Fold these 2 entries.
Entry 1:
Amino acid sequence: MFKYFLQFIALGLLIGAPVIMAQSPVPAGAVVDKIAAGFQFVEGPLWHPDGFLIFSDIPASTVYKWDPATGNTSVFHKPSGNSNGLSLDLQGNVLLCQHGKRRVARRSSDGSESAVAETYQGKKLNSPNDLTVKKDGNIFFTDPPYGINSSQEELKFYGIFRYSPAGELVLLDKSLNRPNGICFSPDESKLYVNDSQALKIYVWDVQADLSIANKTLFYSMTGGGAADGMKTDTEGRLYSSGPGGVWIFSPDKKVIDKIAVPETVTNLNWGDTDYQTLFITAGVSVYSIRLNAVGAAVSAETDLMPQGFELAQNYPNPFNPNTTIAFTLSQATDIFAAVYNERGQQVYELTRHRYLPGRHQLAWTARDEQGKLLPSGVYFCRFEAEEQVQVRKMIYIR
């Protein structure tokens, strides 16, 4: 894993405006880690609810999976239709913006694909680029022409669209030259979209009928390069790819900080069990950095999760010596989990942490607190989630 010390550039020195550094979510002395490399052109990072990162390699027509436990990368979905942006629908299926197939598609859990949106008023879309899913299931996406040449264009404009759960495709705006990155404010009352080559970020008010209105210039970046993927955190800060790395803005349009990245940033997203890690796709590599912030609108499917929490049976079971314990939360919850032997003695503390809604995984290697391998036998995994307790029996065979 290659590490680059971040260069926290006071942007006020570059553009003549003051920077409110006190609000920066970037810890002093933080580092950006290169966690995967050697691809062709990466995009669309997405933290999967099963506890791993997926991302697109557009020219390779492949979605890759990065395992945080091992640091290894493997193929998640291929061919991907030259996918770019990725997201999740309400059921936890992966949504893909496919340049090659000129559509938004859905990948089911069995790996099969189905079209979500591919034509508007009988004409093919250009090449859907990025998307975000509202908590009610509506899919908002941008449709610039980056995946096609001008002779293939049928729409003759580059739109921002909404696809409803009922199957209706609605054009929201066609005023931008190259609409690209797209995301909501934490309360979903505002929609941010950037105009890539113009380096401008715009914001609209989301209306009760899900149209967008009151278009306003949020910020105009300077420097070489382009604007691309964007996300917000729970405090309403906006994170946008831009010249030199990731630009961080306060909700009132002030530049707070900039995360320097050694390659051209294409997109970014939140992940890890607490959603305080920002994953960044850039050039041929994927980077990550821990921040003093929590990602907003982590995934729409959390609204459909069971109330409280669910503890799954460990897998594999019986096991030797590695096993995985998965649990699902419907809301942010303080979790204490530990492993006990048959005499009721605690042998290992798995976690004592606050987790966001979603599916999470913990690993146990059949060792005690001192790292000593335990004897074969029956063990119990006990989870405490506020006022709820769940226990699962585990069988360890050496």
Note: The longest strand covers residues 346-355.
Entry 2:
Amino acid sequence: MQNTNRVDPGQLSRRDTVISILIIGMLFFIFGFVTWVNAILIPYFKIACELTNFQSYLVAFAFYISYFIMSVPSSYLLKAVGFKKGIMLGFWTMALGAAIFVPAAFTRTYEVFLLGLFTIGLGLAVLQTAANPYITILGPKESAAQRISIMGICNKGAGIIAPLIFAAVILKPTDSTLFAQLQHMAGDAKEAALDELIRRVITPYSVVAIVLFLLGLLVRYSPLPDIDTEKEEGAVAAANAGKKTIFGFPHLILGAVAIFLHVGTQVVAIDTIIGYATSMHIPLMEAKTFPSYTLFVTICGYMLGIVTIPKLLSQVNALRICTLLGALFTVGIIYMRGEVRLLGHTADVSIWFVVLLGFANSLVWAGIWPLALDGLGRFTKLGGSLMIMGLSGNAMLPPLYGYFADHYDVRHAYWVLFPCYLYLIFYAFYGHKIRHWTPVARSLKVYPEKELHGTEKV
């Protein structure tokens, strides 16, 4: 049965709005912690399960392909059981996925680990489908990027500490020696060493499963209001009168493609940097810090967005700047060479361009969401589901990077990012303005309202 106890976000008191932002911020922290721990899982599984680059990046594929499968069903689930019950079920699904790690570790079966990651991703898809449209409309349109940036800090803040905490739990100071010895081991001795390595994930993921289960109960009985995400203002309702499906909104469809490519570039920058560092003969115990550097500069970008948007910088101009920087930094990874010493690391300068991709990616998500959902009205929830489906870009780009890394080299594999940034530049400068698929329809446009950044829609 559809939940009818919904409130207009404009009717929420300041106190209720702040409480809602805090609770959604907690959700984004959980998203980040569970998601970005993959940065250490990928090289760890590569060693413990004896994988190629391509096989190891199936961690990202299994985790994120669930968004493609579950995002649209999630919107119907949330309509059927309500916002808070849906979030509870999402947390419980994630808890089940974390629990699957236990039998996977006992048998050292990579496919079962992938099943666990896929299940965690299913639960996350429900949470993302609920949380992203919610925070987008929980306040004025022009400050949506600011609110999303705050959520980004929660997400990436968790991402900074997740790989470090996980590495501290499963890695030992003597592991660098063990990893070197594994190359010369064989038979039962090697199997025993690999079994001991992989079983270290049992305790942390058992704890994660319990925490996720309890968080589901916490949100279910929290004061989080079930707001109406599909309310249409008069002008929007008139403009959407002839729209039957979400495919009548080009700026949404193009935005979903933009999200697909953006998240792919983001996860490649974070999940591949340890492997790139180890290719420079940096030990895993040292390389584990590089994802945190990338996420730290991402948070710096978020904080800059919070301070400058919308007072000093419109969210669309922030999006344009970031997409241009992404293309520039990608070229820097490929062509800039030379060893530098920074933050205690001696490495090729190109790795710091990978780190800087975190800054370039920081305001892209926050810029795309309000532009893509603008004017959707009653289609907002389904449009949000389509945007969440775009998170499957995280599933596609890392294995593609791994394929090129295996067949060429880890540096030139970063070329996969360049066409992605070119499309994001297109969307930032033009694609988000398109309101009709054909030139004739564009000449008859009926959107009188001012756009988020004051330019004309086409």
Note: Residues 110-137 form the longest helix (28 residues).
